[in-house]
Specification:
The protein is about 55% helix and about 15% strand. It is α/β, with parallel strands linked by helices. The chain is flat and about 150 Å long.
C-alpha cells in the first residue's frame, strides 16, 4: 500500500476537537492540585474583576487566574513576589493552546512569607499615617459604657468581665465575632464600625470605649488582626480603642493603629477603668483636705477682718475733709460762672460785627463782580484756543499727506522685491524637484534589480520549491508538517498540492538523515495516482 493511501485513511481532527480532547485529558488527570511558587507578573485586578498572573519557581512557570468571586473570598490577596501555596484546578485555555491553574484558595508559603507580607503592609499603612501618634485619641477616665469585640465563648471575655467587676463595675456591650478563620477579619471590622454607628442616646447606648481582645496564638492564628480592613476600621473609629491581642510577647498591626495597646486582655480591663476602692479613698482624703482648707481660710479671713476694723477711722473724721473740699469747690464755681458770663458777652459782640460785614446783599454784589470778570476771560480763552487748534490741524494734515505718499512708495518697492524673490524661489524649487525625482527613479531601479536578484522567485527559478501549509503559511521545519498535513508546493512555473507522509516524519523525529533524492527520470509514478514527492 502506498503512502498516499495510508494518509488518506488517517482521521482528521479540527483544532477545536484537539483542544477539547487535551482539555478533558488534563482535567481528568489533574483534578485539584496544590502548587507552591512565587507570584510573578501581577498587575492587580483586571477591569472585569478577575486576576491574571503566573506562579514560578527556579526552573518553571505556569499561568494562573483568580475569578472575581473567588478573589473577594481570599484571605491572602495576591502580591508581586509573594511565595504562596495555591489550591485549584488545572485546565487549558484553547485561545492560546496553553494550560493554566484556576486558583480557588491562596495562602502564604510558611512563616517567612507571612512576615514579609506583614512588613510590606506595615510600611504601606505607615506611609499613609495610620500609625501616627498625633491621630491617637485620649481614653476616657471613667467610661459609662464599654464595648468589647471578642469571641463570646472564650476565656478572654470572662477575664475582662471579672477584672472590670473587681475594679469598677461598668455597663458592658459584647459584639460576638470569630477571632480566627476566613470571616474573622470582616466580622471584627463590622463590629468596630457597628459600635461607631450606634446613636449616643439610642435604645442601645453608644460605648465610650472599645476593647478588641483575643487570647494568644501563632502568627497565623492572629493574622485576622493584621488584615487591612480591620486596621482601616480601627483608624476610622471615633470611639477610643484599646488593642488586647494575645500575650505580652505577641503583637499585631492593630496594636500600632489602636489608641492604646494592652499586653493582655486583663491588662486592657485595668487600663479601661480605675480601681473603685482607690477612687473612694482618694475622694475621702480630698474631702478631708478640702474641709480643713475651708476652716483655715475662714479663720484667716476673720483675723484679717478684725485687724481692718481696728485700723478704720471714725465717721466724723472721714467726712471732715470731703466737706471742706465741697465748700472750696462752691466758691470756685461761683467765680467761674461770673467770668464765663463776661467772656460770652464779649464773644457775642464780636460775632455781631462780623455778621454785619458779611451780610447777604454785600456778598451777592461781590460775587456778581467776580462772575462778570470770569465770563469775559472765558470768552477770550475760547477764541484763542479755537485759533490754536485750527493752526495745529493744518500742520498735521500736511504732515499726514507727505507720510502717506512716502509709505506708498515704500510698499511698491517691497512688493517688487517680494515678486523677484518669489520667482527665484520658484525656479530653485523646480530644479530641486527634478533632481529629487531623478534620484528616486535611480533608487527604484536599483531596488528592482536587487529584488530580481535576491527575491524568492529567483530562487524558485534555480530549481527550489516553496512549501506552504493549508493556511498558506510557509513551512520552515519538519515539525510544522505533521503526518497527513495538506501542503502546497510552489515552483517557478506553478503550484501543486501534496500531503505529508508519515514515514519520513517519523524518521526525521528520530534524528535519521533524510534519503538522498533521485533524479526525476528515475522516480516511478503509480498509474492513476500522484507519485511521492519525498
Amino acid at each position: 500500500m502506498s503512502d498516499s493511501s495510508v494518509l488518506t485513511n488517517a482521521p482528521e481532527l479540527t483544532v477545536s476537537e484537539l483542544s477539547g480532547a487535551l482539555k478533558r485529558a488534563i482535567e481528568d488527570q489533574f483534578g485539584h492540585v496544590r502548587l507552591r511558587g512565587e507570584i510573578s507578573n501581577f498587575r492587580g485586578q483586571h477591569s472585569s474583576g478577575h486576576c491574571y498572573f503566573s506562579l514560578k519557581d527556579s526552573s518553571a512557570r505556569i499561568d494562573a487566574v483568580v475569578w472575581k468571586g473567588t478573589y473577594a473570598r481570599l484571605r491572602t490577596k495576591p502580591q508581586e513576589g509573594l511565595e504562596v501555596i495555591a489550591t485549584g484546578r488545572i485546565t487549558t485555555f484553547p485561545g492560546k493552546s496553553s494550560y493554566q491553574i484556576v486558583i480557588e484558595q491562596l495562602e502564604p508559603a510558611g512563616l517567612g512569607a507571612l512576615m514579609a507580607l506583614l512588613e510590606e503592609r506595615r510600611r504601606k499603612l505607615g506611609a499613609e499615617g495610620l500609625f501616627d501618634e498625633a491621630r491617637k485619641k485620649k481614653l476616657p477616665f471613667l467610661p459609662r459604657v464599654i464595648g468589647i469585640v471578642t469571641s463570646p465563648t472564650g476565656a478572654v471575655i470572662r477575664d475582662i468581665l471579672h477584672r472590670l467587676n473587681d475594679r469598677f463595675p461598668r455597663r458592658v456591650l459584647v459584639w460576638p465575632v470569630r477571632v480566627q478563620g476566613e470571616t474573622s477579619a470582616a466580622e471584627v471590622a463590622n463590629a468596630i464600625r457597628g459600635f461607631n454607628a450606634l446613636a449616643p442616646q439610642g435604645a442601645i447606648p453608644r460605648p465610650d470605649l472599645l476593647i478588641v481582645a483575643r487570647g494568644g496564638g501563632s502568627l497565623e492564628d492572629l493574622w485576622s488582626f493584621n488584615e487591612e480592613e480591620v486596621l482601616r476600621a480601627a483608624s476610622e473609629s471615633g470611639i477610643p480603642l484599646i488593642s488586647a491581642i494575645g500575650h505580652e510577647t505577641d503583637w499585631t498591626l492593630l496594636d500600632l493603629v489602636a489608641d492604646l495597646r494592652a499586653p493582655t486582655p486583663t491588662g486592657a480591663a485595668e487600663k479601661a477603668v480605675p480601681v473603685r476602692t482607690e477612687l473612694l479613698a482618694d475622694l475621702a482624703d480630698l474631702a478631708r483636705r478640702h474641709d480643713g482648707a475651708i476652716l483655715r481660710l475662714l479663720e484667716r479671713k476673720c483675723s484679717d477682718l478684725r485687724a481692718l476694723a481696728r485700723a478704720l477711722p471714725g465717721p466724723e473724721s472721714l467726712l471732715a475733709t470731703p466737706r471742706q473740699r465741697l465748700d472750696r469747690s462752691g466758691d470756685k464755681l461761683r467765680a467761674a460762672l461770673a467770668a464765663g458770663f463776661s467772656q460770652r458777652q464779649l464773644a457775642l459782640a464780636n460775632a455781631s460785627r462780623l455778621l454785619a460785614r458779611h451780610a447777604p446783599h454785600a456778598e451777592l454784589q461781590r460775587a456778581s463782580g467776580r462772575l462778570d470778570t470770569l465770563v469775559f476771560r472765558l470768552a477770550a480763552a475760547r477764541a484763542s484756543l479755537v485759533e490754536k487748534r485750527r493752526d495745529r490741524l493744518a500742520v498735521l494734515g500736511a504732515r499726514f499727506d507727505s507720510a502717506r505718499l512716502a509709505r506708498l512708495a515704500l510698499l511698491r518697492n517691497d512688493l517688487r522685491a517680494a515678486e523677484e524673490r518669489r520667482l527665484a524661489l520658484a525656479a530653485r524649487l523646480d530644479a530641486a524637484m527634478a533632481s529629487a525625482l531623478a534620484r528616486r527613479r535611480e533608487r527604484l531601479g536599483h531596488a528592482e534589480q536587487m529584488l530580481a536578484a535576491v527575491g524568492y522567485a529567483a530562487v524558485l527559478r534555480r530549481g527550489f520549491a516553496l512549501v506552504r501549509d493549508a493556511d498558506d503559511v510557509a513551512v520552515r521545519s519538519v515539525a510544522q508538517a505533521p503526518p497527513g498535513a495538506r501542503l502546497t508546493l510552489q515552483f517557478a512555473d506553478g503550484k501543486i498540492a501534496a500531503t505529508a507522509a508519515g514515514s519520513r516524519d517519523a524518521a526525521l523525529a528520530e534524528g535519521a538523515p533524510p534519503p538522498k533524492k533521485r533524479p526525476a527520470s528515475l522516480r516511478k509514478t503509480p498509474e492513476g495516482g500522484q507519485g511521492s514527492l519525498f
